[in-house]
Specification:
alpha+beta, 5 strands
Length: 167
């Protein structure tokens, strides 16, 4: 049987590639390969949300006054811990049976601490309000000293659920 693979360098948006949003530490028979529909969902979240989050965070908190965003050495990337998860990967990761990760509608964004997590969340809320776009989940999560932001946007039926989860 031939092994199926994906082009991990395929661009989803200006600063995000498919490999970033499909990486996993879990080895599964399905290879965590997304469908075309999942890839479109990943593109939508990258183009409509993550690019704006990256730009706004860097402009507000990383650049010196007057410094150019495109040429600055101070621009910080957004680090995605988890994007798309196949059913097998989702099960191994302990994800919910109806997780938005299964459809490519969710990302978990690494945060250096609570302050960065809150800033990311505030920016995403501002994007939602300013663009009149809805999101499904904005979950500020902490496990011990590790923080991340779970953000999900469905094509429809978004709930605008905001919560802080600590374990």
């Amino acid at each position: 049987m031939e092994q199926v693979s994906i082009n991990k360098q395929a661009k989803l948006s200006e600063h995000f590639v498919l490999g970033e949003l499909t990486k996993t530490k879990y080895k599964t028979a399905d290879g965590n390969i997304p469908s075309h529909v999942v890839i479109e969902n990943l593109k939508r979240i990258c183009e409509n949300w993550l690019e704006d989050l990256r730009y706004s965070y860097n402009t507000l908190y990383c650049l010196e006054p007057g410094e150019d965003y495109e040429s600055s050495k101070n621009v910080e990337p957004l680090v995605i811990n988890s994007g798309y998860r196949s059913p097998a990967v989702n099960k191994l990761a302990g994800g919910a049976a109806n997780s938005n990760h299964l459809t490519g509608c969710a990302v978990d964004i690494r945060c250096t601490g609570k302050e960065q997590m809150i800033r990311y969340a505030s920016i995403l809320l501002d994007i939602a309000d300013g663009t009149k776009q809805e999101f499904d989940e904005l979950l500020l999560e902490q496990h011990g000293n590790v923080c991340w932001l779970h953000f999900a946007v469905r094509p429809k039926d978004n709930r605008r659920k905001v919560a802080f989860l600590q374990t």
